[in-house]
Amino acid sequence: MKKVLLSVTALLLVGLAYLSESPLLKQESMTEMTEFYNESTRLQHLSTDSVNRFIVKVRGFTMANPKAEYDPLYPKITKNIRRTKQGVLLYESY
Hints:
By secondary structure, this protein is mostly helical. The protein is built from four helices and no strands.
């Protein structure tokens, strides 16, 4: 009986090890976040007012949808905002 229990436990551990290598939940980006990311890649070519309006738009969306901050594209969007020096004029927290 102990051998069967050990075998089952070993199989479960191998299965868990396999699952831990690949994420259990692959999160797809929200449509809006994909659009925000695409727009954020072009921020360097926009005026200061346009950059600040974009920041307000992203902030408003993330405040209305708190899950958006966990979107895989959110760190990339904020990184693009930080790269754009013009955006610092309105929001220095990015």
